[in-house]
Amino acid sequence: MSWLALTQEEWDAIRLSLRVASVAMVATLPIGLAMALLLARGRFWGKSLLNGFVHLPLVLPPVVTGFLLLVLFGRRGPIGGFLADHLGIVFSFRWTGAALAGAVMGFPLMVRAIRLSIEAVDRRLEAAAGTLGASPLWVFLTITLPLILPGIVAGMILAFAKAMGEFGATITFVSNIPGETQTVPSAIYALTQTPGGDAGAYRLTIVSVAVSMAALIASEWLARRVDRRIGPE
Amino acid sequence: MTIEIDIGHRLGALTLEAHLLAPPGLTALFGPSGSGKTSLVNIVAGLLRPDRGRVAVDGEVLVDTGRAVFVPAHKRRIGYVFQEGRLFPHLSVRQNLLYGRWFTSDVPRRGDEDVDRVVDLLGIASLLDRRPEGLSGGEKQRVAIGRALLANPRIVLMDEPLASLDEARKAEILPYIERLRDESRVPIVYVSHSLVEVTRLATTLAILAEGRIAASGPTDQVMQRLDLLPPSARDEAGSVLETRVESHDDGYGLTTLRARAGTFRVPRIDLAAGSAVRIRIRARDVLVATERPQGLSALNVLPGAVAEIAASDGPAADLRIDCAGEIVTARLTRHSIEALRLRPGLPVYAVIKSVAFDRRSIGAAVQDAGEI
């Protein structure tokens, strides 16, 4: 069974993928929640424009998204340059860049899931909480947030899964550097381009399937747990 | 605690123009659906901003469009019991009940026994650890009432709290609202389109029709103005009398009640002699005789005199009979009124069958409502 043993490079790719996806998921959460609230509850001019912009990474070819990230967040890009000079955060050709690419690609999925759950909240419950003395912030924390928890969990899982599988934008933005930006999909791609790389590609494929299954089962379990805690009206 | 309302608000086709002074006790806002009742209480609660006007509780201004005053709902301390309960599904009954207490920490509190008292008053002690989804409609409403009370409100608004319940559930909750009216010092504004509930509960009655207050005042006085009631309610309309239990007749299962107008024998009610009881006599249940009737099965015969005959162009007209100072309303056909040559001042007898009194028309009377 020695062919099943993962090489150092493959382990690195797996570890990197998990780290990239986790960071992408956690970093997107506050922004995704705020954006979902804005889109679900806000009333302002240009809302449909903003909505379209948020969903853009979902429909754009990933290569285009990666190229735009390269232009904007590259070492000499308007945003990337500023961040590198003032905060010391560098994205290009670093694992942080892979996380950024994963976050951008997963963002619309997270916003969508949370937004739908916010729109499903019975606003009459929030009005009732108001008559009991809860300020809008407390209403959000004690009523809205617990009620949309299943949507938040679903959104986080989707964002994580998207970041795990992200390939096109990542490889365009931060290339395919083993140990730094080579995530599992990039590694599989590289292995299929190498003579004799089939065994490695198979091993990583098995890992991918296992991780995906685990994520699905975990999300299912979490959703059921949250559901039982909140329960239908 | 008095509530002053003077507002104007446009709601689609309806223009709400209401001027109302709600004294302590239970003030019922009565009117058909679409007459603006819910909007009016939403304005008081702060859930709706009126186009113009002023709302004040005990002199404290909550809304004054002239001076750009609008106190947000969460700072008003006005309890609200909604038609659909609106219990928080993710919290237990206990957490629902205590929800408002988290936010009233700066308000003088009446102590923890307060929770026990409210739980006891509403009979919900056995539900505390359950989730709202498992409760019956009646239980949900009782928890909702408790939740509103425990937020330490200055007034409680109830918007058709019984409308979504069947008759049995209604009968289960009405006594709790009566106890609340009599035992707690919080004034209640009660919205309803059911005359049965209103006559049983209200100390003050305001009739709302097409966005305007058509009449308001003490319940027994307003109830006599049948012409002001919406057509749908006229079948149930009649007079409201305050009585006391005089004696019980266990052999026949009857209770004798004494009112100023005379004595009434009604199906037995389980209250000690001397207890105050409010009865409602439907106008359509009253017969009128010009001589004291003989050989009649009806047990209640009240002597009086015709006070007023309401003008009517339908087949029936309402007759107000003055019985020793109390008004009993009778609905007769215009044919009978002419055949008996009824006219104001004529001595008559009002006749009511004992079985016309049912559980829905006899309730515990308002106790010392003027003093709370």
Features:
heterodimer, A: 233 residues, mainly alpha, MetI-like fold, 10 helices, 78% helix, B: 372 residues, alpha+beta, 6-stranded mixed sheet, 5-stranded antiparallel sheet, 8 helices, 36% strand, disordered C terminus
Structure explained in plain terms:
- The complex is a heterodimer of chains A (233) and B (372).
- Chain A is an all-alpha fold and 233 residues long.
- Chain A has ten helices and no strands.
- The model of chain A has no long low-confidence stretch (mean pLDDT 88).
- The radius of gyration of chain A is 20 Å and the shape is globular.
- Chain B is an alpha+beta fold and 372 residues long.
- Chain B contains eight helices and 21 strands.
- In chain B, strand 17 and strand 18 (316-323) form a beta hairpin.
- In chain B, helix 3 (113-122) packs antiparallel against helix 4 (137-150) and helix 4 (137-150) runs parallel beside helix 5 (167-183).
- Chains A and B meet through helix 6 and helix 7 of A and strand 7 of B.
Figure out the total of helices of chain B: 8
- Give the termini separation of chain A: 53 Å
Shape of chain A: globular
Largest interface, per-chain counts? A-B, 24 and 29 residues
Return the CATH architecture of chain A.
Orthogonal Bundle
Percentage of residues in helical conformation of chain B: 10-25%
* Biggest sheet statistics of chain B: 6 strands, mixed
CA gyration radius of chain B, whole angstroms:
22 Å
Largest sheet of chain A: none
* Oligomeric nature of the chains: heterodimer
Strand content of chain B: 35-45%
Residue share in β-strands of chain A: under 5%
Order of helices and strands of chain B: EEEHEEEEHHHEHEHEEHEEEEEEEEHEE
Short note summarizing the structure:
The complex is a heterodimer of chains A (233) and B (372). Chain A has 233 residues and is mostly helical.
Write the SSE topology:
The complex is a heterodimer of chains A (233) and B (372).
Chain A: H1 8-41, H2 47-59, H3 62-73, H4 78-86, H5 95-120, H6 123-131, H7 136-165, H8 168-174, H9 184-192, H10 198-230
Chain B: E1 3-11, E2 14-22, E3 26-30, H1 37-45, E4 52-57, E5 60-64, E6 69-70, E7 78-81, H2 93-98, H3 113-122, H4 137-150, E8 155-159, H5 167-183, E9 188-192, H6 195-201, E10 204-209, E11 212-218, H7 219-223, E12 238-249, E13 254-259, E14 262-267, E15 276-282, E16 286-289, E17 300-309, E18 316-323, E19 326-333, H8 334-339, E20 347-352, E21 362-364
Helix pairs in contact in B: 3-4, 4-5
